[in-house]
């Protein structure tokens, strides 16, 4: 279940789940000498944010690197950035845009490795409707996050003066009944969910969806004080994601106890839908977790255009590829 910032607010306790410290495939091992760290997820545990981490735990990759990792699931109470900034975790996950926003607020976080090269957010419409551009949203009801900077920017950019914008609540019931309507959604689960209700959808790219998604991040302070720990966590996590890509069904079984509202079959389907967003572009051309200045410049420019941030210098030092496994 991909995070949806417009879903109904549900009181979710932040759950710390320590899965590491168990014996890896090679045999038993004591955790006494392992350095303990916590990774704060950007939402509830799901394939997009926890698949590779769980794989690295189960296969002993963290243990082999001298680290014991606990997963701290997120929710609506505190963002992963706030958890890390407050000392509740050493590492977290967020989008590149959110990392820039945090830095503009004086929180010195650094992206170490994105999981998704491209985010799965999009606009969905009933197949057969003549929609090829955001400008075609005029004259329609659009279920979206109406007060978000992204929607406000889209309205201004594409001249959406005749749109009935309705706050998206996470339910597609009204969208299903209106063939001319448009709704935001995630391509990893929403099209399948709607197909099960008899609605085939077309897809319109969300023009604000240019971020790196599910970026593993830490603080500049930890990078300066313990770069070897950072390297160990990044390399083991990257190795876990590589395993995830070739062993989706097995990882889904490991992940299911953390994603209690989803079956193994649900997790397999979502994981398979994630693959094109993880292994695309630089992740296949260079290596998993690769980042470029060009992509970060685009994210920065959009954030400036949306007036989410005002100082472009916050992007200086916002990301690094220094700790990725050697190619």
Structural account:
- There is one protein chain.
- With 327 residues, the chain is an alpha/beta fold.
- The protein folds into two domains: 16-118 and 211-315, Periplasmic binding protein-like II (D-Maltodextrin-Binding Protein, domain 2); 121-205, 3-Layer(aba) Sandwich (D-Maltodextrin-Binding Protein, domain 2).
- Helices cover 36% and strands 18% of the residues.
- The chain has 13 helices and eleven strands.
- The protein has helices at residues 47-58, 61-64, 80-85, 96-104, 149-157, 173-177, 190-195, 220-225, 227-246, 248-255, 264-278, 282-285, 293-305; strands at 16-18, 35-40, 67-72, 91-94, 109-116, 121-126, 141-144, 164-167, 182-186, 201-205, 213-219.
- The strands form two sheets. It has a six-stranded mixed beta sheet with strand order 1-3-2-4-11-5, sandwiched between helices. Strands 8-7-9-6-10 form a five-stranded mixed beta sheet.
- Helix 1 (47-58) crosses helix 9, helix 1 packs across helix 10 (248-255) and helix 10 (248-255) packs across helix 11.
- The longest helix has 20 residues, at 227-246.
- It is globular, with a radius of gyration of 20 Å.
- 44% of the residues are buried.
- The model is unreliable at 1-29 (pLDDT under 50).
